[in-house]
Amino acid sequence: MQPKRILLITALLLLPTLLLAQAPVAQPPAAQPGQGGPPRGFGGPPSPANQPFARDDARHKGFLEIAKAGNIDLLFVGDSITDWFANPRGNNPATGRKVWDASFGSMKPANFGIAGDTTQGVLWRMQNGELEGFKPKLIVLMLGTNNINRNPVDEIVDGDRLIVEEFKKRQPQAKVLVLGVFPRNNNRQPDQTAALRTTIQEINSKLAKLADNKQVFFMDIGDKFLTSDGTLTTEVMPDGLHPSEKGYQIWSDAILPRVKELMK
Q1: Is the pLDDT of residue 104 over 70?
Q2: How far apart are CA 160 and CA 207, in angstroms?
């Protein structure tokens, strides 16, 4: 076979490979703010606990309508622990609803807790309409447990600090009651419970410094949930995290006198 013919055949055989090598590789679309990536620090590398992360969902939009309707004197903000104090849990009624109604029902309350939320999500929600349309006398914040094992302690505390700053900026007439993160058990790894409690104590010791005792106040009621030897029973928190009705009664009893005082 002639050399020119061999070269021609070789070139034809290599042509598809050369074309594929030069073809651009399709890239995924760039993530937009609040889209893509791990929502609220879950399911992947977490976003910093002191940076807002959009959770523009039905719950948020529902809270916007409640806010616009006004008539709120007492606002609770947080995650599932706050959420299930007053709002339904799936197909079941809210675990603490009877306690909520008996303790706070006459105070024109609103509950802006969302199960699974973190400092990132709450910070975004407070910056995007949930503090507009009403003028509460008191805002109660208990938040940070969902950030543990995902974010450093100082970021978690700074996330709560930035949320408090949003309260002060957007609701300057309101008092703010920051609650320490509640104690937890690690039911999947019981040997890790002590380390988890230590982290929570560190968070709470730093959250206490947010209080100026003029507009912002702090309470750590964690010991109210524990027995004298530090045990967190399933009677109080069946899954080691979320209060039972008895747990919500403990919460209410612990803060109700302070709530009434701050709302005067």
Answers
A1: yes
A2: 8
Does the residue 251 lie in any domain? yes
| Distances in whole angstroms, Cα of residue 119 to Cα of each of 39, 88, 137, 174, 180 | 12, 22, 22, 20, 14
Residue linked to tokens 């008539």:
71
pTM of the model: 0.84
Instruction: Copy the structure tokens of residue 128.
Output: 């995007």
Catalytic member of 47, 158, 242, 252: 242
Return the residue matching tokens 């959009």.
54
- Domain assignment present for residue 170? The answer is yes
Q: 47, 60, 80, 117: which one is catalytic?
A: 80
Per the annotation, the verdict on 242 as an active-site residue is yes
Q: Name which residue leads in pLDDT, 189 or 102.
A: 102
- Report which secondary-structure segment, H or E, holds 141: strand 138-142
Structure tokens at 101: 């109604």
Amino acid at 174: A
pLDDT above 70 as % of the chain: 83
Tokens of 168: 């002060």
Structure tokens at 33: 């703010």
Q: Which two tokens stand for residue 143?
A: 């938040």
Q: Is 239 a catalytic residue?
A: yes
83 is catalytic: no
Count of residues making up the chain:
264
Query: Quick check: is 225 in a domain?
Result: yes
The number of helices, as runs of H, and strands, as runs of E, in the chain is: 8, 5
CA gap 158, 188 in Å, rounded: 28
Structural domains in the chain (count): 1
In the chain the beta strands, taken as DSSP E runs, fall at 74-78, 109-113, 138-142, 175-179, 216-219
Is 85 within the bounds of a domain? yes
